[in-house]
Automatic annotation (TrEMBL):
Organism: Hyphococcus luteus
EC number of the protein: 3.1.13.5
PANTHER family tied to this protein: RIBONUCLEASE D
NCBIfam families linked to this entry: rnd (TIGR01388)
Record gene name: rnd
InterPro entries hit by this protein: 3'-5'_exonuclease_dom, HRDC-like_sf, HRDC_dom, HRDC_dom_sf, RNase_D, RNase_D-like, RNaseH-like_sf, RNaseH_sf
Presence of the UniProt keyword Cell inner membrane in the record: no
Superkingdom assignment: Bacteria
Chain ranges of the HRDC domain: 208-289
GO biological process, one term: tRNA 3'-end processing
Cell compartment(s), UniProt: Cytoplasm
UniProt-recorded name of the protein: Ribonuclease D
Keyword Transport: no
Protein task: Exonuclease involved in the 3' processing of various precursor tRNAs. Initiates hydrolysis at the 3'-terminus of an RNA molecule and releases 5'-mononucleotides.
Gene3D superfamilies from the UniProt entry: HRDC domain (1.10.150.80), Ribonuclease H-like superfamily/Ribonuclease H (3.30.420.10)
Amino acid sequence: MQVISTTDDLAKFSKALRAQPFVAVDTEFMREKTYWPILCLIQAAGDGEEAIIDPLADAIDLAPFLELLSDKKVVKVFHAARQDLEIFYKLLGEVPAPLFDTQIAAMACGFGDQIGYEPLMRTLLKAKIDKGSRFTDWARRPLTEAQLSYALSDVTHLRAAYPILAESLEKRERKHWVEEEMEALNNGDLYHVKPEQAWKRLKLKGVRPKEMGVVMKLAEWREREAQTKDTPRSRVLKDEAIFELARLQPRDAKGLGRARSIPSGFERSRAGAAILDTIKEGAELPREDLPRIDKPERERAPADVVELLKVLLKRQCEAFSVAPKLIASSADLEAIALDDEADVAALAGWRREIFGEPALRLKRGEIALKLKKGAVDIIEA
C-alpha cells in the first residue's frame, strides 16, 4: 500500500494518473468542530496506480494533485460527490472537471434513488466491505493498516465500478443524462455559502415582515463569523436564537440578556455588541428592499391528477429502469398537475421524453392507464 507524504512522491503519482483516461477519487475528512471540513486523507486510483495521500503530512504540497483535478483530459470519478467537491472547490477555486458521479449514474441505470456506496459495490462487484473503520478519527496519526486499507478500498472498488456503469449508460444511450447532472454539479454556489445569502438556508415559516431584515442580517453576521473563525454556525448563534432576537429586537445589553437563547454574560461580550449593531442594521432596512415572505396561498393541485401522475411516474421508471428521484419530485408532479408549462426539470430534455410528454398526454386524455397481467400499462385513449 502506497501512502504518499512528500511532494516529490505526489508529483510522480499525479503525473502517472494524468496519462490515464480517468481517476477514482475519495476523501476522508472531519468537520464536527469546524466550519470548513478538515481534509485528512485523499485516496486516488487509476489503471495500475493507487495510493493514499496524507494532506496532514508536514512535507507535502497538494499542488501536483490539484493540477490533476483541473486536467480536462482526465475524468474524475466520485460517489455522491457533493462533500468531496466542496473540499476541492475551496482548494482549487473551481470544481474538478470533467466529473462522473457513480451514484447519479446508478440512478440513471435503475439502481434506485440515491443508492449508497456499499450496496452499489455489492451489486456491481460482489464486493464485501469491512465497515469496522467507518467511524475512524481520520485526523489522528498514525493510522492503522486496517484503517488505511478501508480508505483505499473506496477508490479501488470505484475504479472497477466506473467502466461497468459507463458501459451500461452507453448501451442504454443515457450518457447525456448523467452529463446534464454533472453540469449542475459544476455550480460553485453549491459549495460556498455567501454570507448575504445565508438567510435562505433558514426555515422562515412564521417570520413576520418586520422581523425579516433582522433575520437576514443576523444570518449574514453568523455566516461571516463562522467562516472567519472556522467554527460551526451553531456555535456562533443557533437558528432559534436568530428568530428569537428578530422577534425581541433588543436595543441594549440588558435587553439582549433577557433572551432565553443567549447564554448568561454573553450580552456583555464583543460578540453581544456586534449582535446589537446587527439587529439595529436589520431593523432599519427599508421594507421594500426585503424579500416577500407573506406569499399568497398556492393553488392546490388536483389530488386525483397528482395520484395518476405518481402511478405514471412509477410505471415509466420501471419501464426505463431509472430512479424516480432522478425524474421528478412530488413538488414537480403538483406543478405539472396545475400547469402544462410548469418550470420543472421533468418537462425538459430527456426527462420530458421519458415522463414529461406522457404526463401531459395523460392530462389531456390522449392516453390512459390500465392493468395488464397485474402491471400498469399505457394505452391510447
